[in-house]
Prior knowledge:
The chain is of the alpha+beta class. Helix content is 44%, strand content 22%.
Amino acid sequence: MRDEAFDKARLRMFVQRLPIPSAVLDGSGRFLLKNDAYTTAVESQSFTSDGVSIAREAGAQDYATIESRVQSVGGMSVPLAFADTYLVVFPGKFPPYQVYLEEAFKRFQSALLLIDAAGTILNANTAFGEWFQITDRAVGQNVHEVFKDLPDEQAPVPERLIDGFEVRDEPFIWMRDGKALHLTRDSYVLGGPGGARLIAFKEVGRYVNIDEKVLRADRLATIGQMAAGTAHEIRNPLTSLRGFLQLLQMSLAERQMDKEYGYVQLMLKEITRINALVDQFLLLGKPRDIRFQKIRLPQVVGEIVPVLESEAMLHDIVIHNDVREPLPLVIGDSELVKQVIINIVKNAIEAIEQDGTITLSASVDPGSQVLILDIHDTGPGIPPYMIDRIFDPFFTTKSDGTGLGLSVCQRIVQDLGGQIRVLCKGYGTNVQILLPYVRDEGDVVQSD
């Protein structure tokens, strides 16, 4: 009896450890033991209705009938040494992990598509449906029919992949809602040449943006190092040149040599321009002595708008200042904020050229706890292919521009813990400066 009890304990352990649905029945069909895999398969409805009925009709018939039923649903039965006892297993027909694999396929973050050798869609996960805008009804259709309006190499599954050609990390760009989705594409042949093809797409757009930001930061750092090492070496000879040219200018004026006087005046103007360029170099490179304090944006804007209006009037441009209280206090340096606003408004004046408006307004985003300063102009706007480059050092569309103005603005705003964005849809440009604010007692926060 002790040996029989020991054998039953070992049988119970053996059945429980089997990775496939398994059970022990007596001759009447009554369950003596079921493993977790069997229970999971029944609960998840992996069995057919016949398979479930085995569990529901235990003891209702003799074992011969049960054995026939087991075989009909792909199971196997093995007689055991115990009297009138049988082990029933379902080898690979209803494995519980099949349910898990199906769910993993559907929920996988990458876009997955399974097709046969003829290109018929066998399955597609949720990500594929969202990225390529297809529904479950596409299953059973040929990929050529689903993407029939696209040239072969612009389609997600070109003919060469259907033919069994395998690729790894192949770059692929898919246009979705007018925006480029940067992907890499892998393809796998499953089960031999006549088997299925699995095509997987991974999104790499966010990594591309990170790489661009890192490269931009590296360029700014390099410019800063150059500026620190060469600024004084450039300024010293320029100072000498300026001094002697001013003496020469006085002499030419006394002799009434107006033509030569104009040449010298032009040279002094260019020297001033070089000095301004060196100053911008230094602004990009050297650490700033930022005096963080709580400032009122309406007051800061109100102090500089009169200065900007005088220049705007020369071009028949009207500046509307709609930055009004009540607004929360902004954390920053008022002088640096003024520098950024002046630079952006001057850019807007140059873009409009003649007869237009520039509007300054403010709103609050309580969720991100930032105050948003909008500077909108009625100029011609920025072409979409230039938007991503306008903050690059030395990139400019002006014949006499340095290409450092917006780079300096971006660096200042980032040093203040904020963000600068440029939006352009059709006519005009909208520059947004996002600065963190603090909630103090008595401060009023209003949003759009």
